[in-house]
Amino acid sequence: MKKHFTFILLLFACILVHAAQVDTISVYAEKMKKEIKTVVIKPENYSKKKQYPVIYLLHGYSDNFAKWVNTVPAVKELATQYGILFVCPDGGYSSWYLDSPVDPEFQYESFITKDLINFIDKQYATIPNRNARAITGLSMGGHGGLYLAIRNRDVFAHAGSMSGAVDVLGTSKKYDLIKRIGKSYEEDPELWRSHSVAYLVESLNNKDLNLIIDCGVADFLYEMNAALHQKLIKLGIDHDYIERPGKHNWEYWANAIHYQVLYFSRNITKDER
């Protein structure tokens, strides 16, 4: 009985060691003058002697930095399977990952593309260049992944979206968007277009980014994702597009993340490991 009990303790200790691969850190946001909580998920065999690609994984509206790892613990297995780091920053409940032109408390584009990436590359064993750096997310975070990559092509080479709100004009009356952008769509249509992925893709040249877009056909954001897919085809922008049965929920995203990571891993391997 004593040996059996000892074995259970050792097994429990091993589980705790694996769980320790999830770090919760605070990173200072220079423009916002505050610390931002962030989760970093490392593979179980993480070593400072190696260098790892990084996927920045964004949460949706009203969630926080811990939502992905708590709701989809399989991301820890994916980190080990593909030898990558996940970085999950807090998006301020409803930041839309923008630098708000009217609210200094919401400067999340600058935070992620400057402060956070610089911190991660200094503190962790990353491959510190765009070819080994991807960004994606769900819903608001799907918008954020594409938005930040399109606007910062010198920072990211790979970007994705899961059930993304890829055209903010379609949700302009909800989700604090007017608070972040500062005016209604009717007051300044061009300002809104400049913050919407559906219009920003017009600035892309083919091969600027490796893009993957994924949305369930029963999702309330499906039509805007399908429209973005068609627009990218007309623009001649290569991308992967996935649609399948599914709604705007965690069951869908827990499945979708596997396809996103596979896509990123294949393209990062081509570029640099």
Description:
By secondary structure, the chain is of the alpha/beta class. It has one domain (24-271): Rossmann fold, CATH 3.40.50. The chain is built from 10 helices and 8 strands. It has helices at residues 2-19, 67-71, 74-82, 108-123, 140-151, 177-181, 189-193, 197-200, 222-235, 250-271, and strands spanning 22-29, 34-41, 54-58, 85-89, 133-137, 158-162, 210-216, 240-244. An 8-stranded mixed sheet has the order 1-2-4-3-5-6-7-8, sandwiched between helices. A hairpin with a 4-residue loop joins strand 1 and strand 2 (34-41). Helix 3 runs parallel beside helix 10 (250-271). The longest helix has 22 residues, at 250-271. It starts with a helix and ends with a helix.
CATH topology group: Rossmann fold
Radius of gyration: 19 Å
Q: How many helical stretches?
A: 10
Number of strands: 8
What structural class is derived from the secondary structure elements?
alpha/beta
Q: Architecture in CATH?
A: 3-Layer(aba) Sandwich
Helical content (DSSP H or I, runs of 4+): 40-55%
The low-confidence parts are 1-20
Biggest sheet details: 8 strands, mixed
Kindly provide the name of the CATH class. Alpha Beta
Summarize model confidence as the mean pLDDT: 92
Total of domains: 1
Backbone shape = globular
Proportion of β residues? 15-25%
Task: Name the helix and strand elements from N-terminus to C-terminus, one letter apiece.
Answer: HEEEHHEHEHEHHHEHEH
